[in-house]
TrEMBL record:
Predominant location category: membrane
Protein name stated in the entry: ABC transporter ATP-binding protein
Location of the ABC transporter domain: 4-230
Family under the similarity heading: Belongs to the ABC transporter superfamily.
Entire protein: shown range: 3 to 232 of 276
Organism: Carboxydocella sporoproducens DSM 16521
GO cellular component: ATP-binding cassette (ABC) transporter complex
Membrane topology reported for the UniProt record: Peripheral membrane protein
Length: 230
């Protein structure tokens, strides 16, 4: 079954920039999806549609077969189920300590204290930063901040994890580590969607790839279909 669908989505920013044109996608539950494209292709704009931060000018987004509703209460529910890790961790981190940062989301859901603690511990372990729990977020390295921002989203236990350029600015070794974390998360059943401009990464990691250019999907298929044809 499809967990997320984009149906003929059109979007333009207030300044008139057309960012998405006739975008169709049908994301299968539990799969690893790469959205491949260069800067400005529309990947981030699409992701912001997947959790309702942006609303299509035309077309629609569906979650688990239902057209997304933009009522406040329905949007909160959608954002609980579709988590986005942004490219720049500094845009996402605002708490004093790592532990506070990761517990913020679960606390906001109104979960019991023991459940909040369980989720934070699990997210710390999954991202291999348990040793950083008491550190001030501003004192962390770039790679560490990336992990904290991922952990904060994981603690929400989303059904879909979306990562905008998870390996941007990371060296090959750190990139591999991040991709291994995402594999582990996928192995537990979470649908993982990422954007990248790295063709090799998409080929090696994804079950299914969408290629975007100038706001359109210009190709899609399994890595073998996309990269070995012709
Ligand atoms: P990508 O994530 O693939 O780099 P984006 O979704 O960020 O692409 O951008 C798609 C297009 O929308 C680009 O032309 C970009 O310049 C434009 N864009 C992105 N954000 C804004 C914004 N806030 N206002 C106006 N144009 C924007
Ligand atoms: P570690 O995880 O061993 O502490 P870092 O987090 O310091 O390593 O670095 C991880 C990667 O991120 C390295 O490739 C480094 O060059 C890069 N990096 C570090 N700081 C920044 C930054 N402010 N902006 C972009 N890239 C950075």
């Amino acid at each position: 079954s499809f967990i997320l669908e984009a149906c003929a989505v059109e979007f333009a920013y207030p300044d008139g920039t057309v960012a998405l044109q006739g975008v169709n996608m049908a994301i299968e539950r539990g799969k690893k999806i790469a959205v491949l494209g260069s800067n400005g292709a529309g990947k981030s704009t699409l992701f912001l549609h997947f959790n309702g931060i942006l609303r299509p000018r035309q077309g629609e987004i569906r979650f688990a077969g239902h057209k997304v509703s933009y009522k406040h209460k329905d949007l909160l529910e959608l954002r609980k189920r579709v988590g986005i890790v942004f490219q720049d961790p500094d845009s996402q981190l605002f708490s004093a300590s790592v532990y506070q940062e990761i517990s913020f989301g679960p606390l906001n859901l109104g979960l019991a204290e023991a459940e909040v603690r369980r989720r934070v511990e699990q997210a710390l372990a999954a991202t291999e930063i348990s040793h950083l729990r008491d550190k001030p977020t501003h004192a962390l390295s770039y790679g560490q901040k990336k992990r904290v921002s991922l952990a904060a989203i994981l603690a929400m236990e989303p059904e879909v994890l979306i990562c905008d350029e998870p390996t941007a600015w990371l060296d090959p070794r750190h990139s591999r580590q991040v991709m291994e974390l995402l594999d582990n998360i996928s192995d537990k059943g979470t649908t993982v969607i990422l954007s990248t401009h790295d063709v090799e990464l998409a080929y090696d990691w994804a079950d299914y790839v969408y290629v975007m250019q100038q706001g359109r999907v210009i190709g899609q298929g399994t890595p073998a279909e996309i990269f070995l044809d012709e």
